[in-house]
Amino acid sequence: MDGLDDVFGDLFSSVDGVMLFSPSGSYYERFADVDDVDVIVVGTENDVGADTFVELPLAFDDVADRIKFGLEGGIEAGVIEDGDELACATRIFADEIDTVSRVRASADDHTGIYDLFAKSRAEPEVIKAVLELAIELGKKGQKGKPVGALFIVGDAGKVMNKSRPLSYNPFEKSHVHVGDRIVNVMLKEFSRLDGAFVISDAGKIVSAYRYLEPSAEGVDIPKGLGARHMAGGAITRDTNAVSIVLSESDGLVRAFKGGEMILEVDPEAY
Questions:
Q1: By residue range, what is the domain housing residue 137?
Q2: Which portions of this protein are annotated as coiled-coil regions (predicted)?
Q3: pLDDT value at position 1?
């Protein structure tokens, strides 16, 4: 009769590396004598002083997202390679690591999520809140009807200098931040009107109804996308902001950075 090592042995046999997601110091020390595979720590902080570390900008609650981000970050950092087989150890039910998954790293699965969160000026929590708002708006629309929306996140001072108001700014004298439930309801209501939302690095809503005026020269966006996407892409080339755009026509959410599209998300997949 086979033992558990025989049954589950395939999870660990011939792996190229082990990814430990936010391990405790004592758990990490158990791998001190492991020298036949690379041990990579993934987390928001390198609390264990690991030699090989991949930073998570957010403590993703969803395990699949946590592992996907760790793999993409590992490939980006050059600590794992396309095709590597990895044993990913993380926690689900307990305060300590309790689950192991075997995953194959694939450069073809690059989503752009690592670039969006880890290499942006705005705080990761702010970008996540805006992205989730755009996805929710894409799912539900405005009173059941599809809407388009444009959010510019980060480097707000420069963005304001490269835009002009289309109407009265309802947030001019307020100190509200994206992510608050009531504020999100307000943003959804205002999204049906023209113009972009400008949001600071820390999440303060600086303005609504902004007409962006960056030069579109040299900005590369996919064919079929309109003025909202062009403006969103162009402003990120001229500033250190990222833009998150909800398309009214196809319902997809796209993110731009450095004048290029780095992420495309179907809200119905979330």
A1: 115-265
A2: none
A3: 45
Residues 246, 232: contact at Cβ < 8 Å? no
Q: What is the pLDDT of residues 143-175, one digit of tens each?
A: 667 788 999 999 999 999 999 999 989 898 888
- Tell which residue, 156, 169, 69, has the closest CA to residue 109: 69
Does some domain include residue 261? Answer: yes
Would you call 70 helix, strand, or coil by DSSP?
helix
One domain for residues 121 and 252 = yes
Residue 44 CB partners (closer than 8 Å, separation 6+): 22, 55, 56, 57, 58, 59
Buried b (16+ CB within 10 A) or exposed e, 28-64: beebeeeeebbbbbbbeeeebebebbbbbbbebeeee
**Cα separation of 262 and 4, whole Å?**
43
Question: Are residues 232 and 256 located together in one domain of the fold?
Answer: yes
